[in-house]
């Protein structure tokens, strides 16, 4: 994999940072798009909800490295404990702007670069909750479900260009997005999981790397590392 280039959104922390680290260990060059500088070869500070800024950032990455082989859309955030009846329009719009809008903006900017290089891979980060639903975080689940549908449709659209699009839908993962008081950290909940623990960010990152490399048979598929939350 030496010399291949990966662009990762949300690369300053959590799953995005873990993905950048795992890919770098495998010889990839990495570029990170985030609101904060990321531990990548080319950190670019940008808001993924700003389509023009994302297009310029992706162009900068392609110009710097001369190619683009993989795009990972991990930018997002999480809110929980909000009932549907109490959800504000601002909360709804912001969640969709970051999670769905950020994914769409990044893919729209990156696909021409992938295609011009003969193809590549896109891995979209959704959520296990998009497969099952969740109480108290309906806007997050809806946005992650929309990302899943978008990615499946995109996979059909760009396969002829040599671009494989797939989805990773992690279960509760041990990142800063989960507050210390989150019910997903409650020992009583963890005891219901066959593995008895949260998923680790690096485990999600290894799933991403697999889809980008050995997983050449996957197209429009969902892999869900979730510690047995969904069987």
Automatic annotation (TrEMBL):
UniProt keywords, alphabetically: Oxidoreductase
Organism: Streptomyces plumbiresistens
Protein name: SDR family oxidoreductase
Organism taxonomic ancestry: Bacteria, Bacillati, Actinomycetota, Actinomycetes, Kitasatosporales
SUPFAM superfamilies per the UniProt record, alphabetical: NAD(P)-binding Rossmann-fold domains
Top-level taxonomic group: Bacteria
Keyword Ribonucleoprotein part of the UniProt annotation: no
Family assignment from sequence similarity: Belongs to the short-chain dehydrogenases/reductases (SDR) family.
DNA damage is among the record's keywords: no
């Amino acid at each position: 994999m030496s010399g291949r280039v990966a662009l990762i959104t949300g690369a300053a922390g959590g799953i995005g940072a873990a993905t950048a680290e795992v890919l770098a260990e495998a010889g990839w060059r990495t570029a990170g798009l985030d609101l904060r500088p990321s531990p990548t070869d080319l950190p670019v500070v940008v808001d993924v909800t700003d389509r023009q800024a994302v297009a310029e950032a992706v162009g900068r990455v392609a110009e710097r490295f001369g190619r683009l082989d993989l795009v990972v859309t991990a930018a997002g955030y999480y809110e929980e404990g909000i009932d549907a009846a109490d959800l504000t329009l601002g909360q709804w719009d912001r969640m969709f702007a970051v999670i769905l809008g950020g994914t769409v903006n990044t893919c729209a900017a990156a696909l021409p670069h992938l295609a011009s290089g003969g193809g590549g891979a896109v891995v979209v980060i959704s959520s296990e909750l998009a497969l099952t639903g969740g109480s108290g975080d309906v806007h997050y689940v809806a946005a992650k479900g929309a990302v899943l549908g978008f990615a499946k449709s995109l996979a059909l659209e760009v396969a002829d260009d040599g671009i494989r699009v797939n989805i990773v839908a992690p279960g509760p993962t041990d990142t800063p997005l989960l507050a210390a008081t989150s019910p997903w950290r409650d020992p009583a909940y963890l005891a219901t999981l066959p593995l008895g623990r949260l998923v680790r960010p690096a485990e999600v990152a290894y799933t991403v790397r697999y889809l980008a490399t050995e997983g050449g048979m996957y197209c429009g598929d969902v892999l869900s590392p979730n510690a047995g939350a969904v069987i």
